[in-house]
C-alpha cells in the first residue's frame, strides 16, 4: 500500500559511467557523450571560458 519514499531505495541505475578519454565518471551511457570532456560529441576537448577562474582585481 505504501508507495513513495520506500520505493526510492530501489533505484540503482547509473546514467553516467567512467569516460575512457578523461577517466571521470561523466560519460552518459544512454546519450554516449561525456559531460566533462565532450567525448562522443567532438574530437576537441570540452572547455569553456567561464570554467577558468578569473584573477581578482586589486
UniProtKB/TrEMBL annotation:
GO terms for molecular function: rRNA binding; zinc ion binding. One of its GO terms (cellular component) is ribonucleoprotein complex. It holds the Pfam family Ribosomal_L37e. A zinc finger (C4-type) spans 19-37. One of its GO terms (biological process) is translation. The keyword DNA repair does not apply. Keywords: Metal-binding, Ribonucleoprotein, Ribosomal protein, RNA-binding, rRNA-binding, Zinc, Zinc-finger. It comes from the Archaea. Zn(2+) binds at residues 19, 22, 34, 37. Its cofactor is Zn(2+). Binds 1 zinc ion per subunit. The keyword Transmembrane does not apply. Belongs to the eukaryotic ribosomal protein eL37 family. Binds to the 23S rRNA. Component of the large ribosomal subunit. The ribosome is a large ribonucleoprotein complex responsible for the synthesis of proteins in the cell. HAMAP family: Ribosomal_eL37 (MF_00547). This is Large ribosomal subunit protein eL37. It comes from Methanocalculus taiwanensis. The lineage of its organism: Archaea, Methanobacteriati, Methanobacteriota, Stenosarchaea group, Methanomicrobia. The gene is rpl37e.
Amino acid at each position: 500500500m505504501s508507495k513513495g519514499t520506500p520505493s526510492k531505495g530501489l533505484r540503482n541505475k547509473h546514467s553516467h559511467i567512467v569516460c575512457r578519454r578523461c577517466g571521470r565518471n561523466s560519460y552518459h551511457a544512454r546519450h554516449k557523450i561525456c559531460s566533462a570532456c565532450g567525448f562522443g560529441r567532438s574530437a576537441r576537448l570540452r572547455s569553456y571560458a567561464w570554467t577558468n577562474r578569473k584573477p581578482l582585481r586589486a
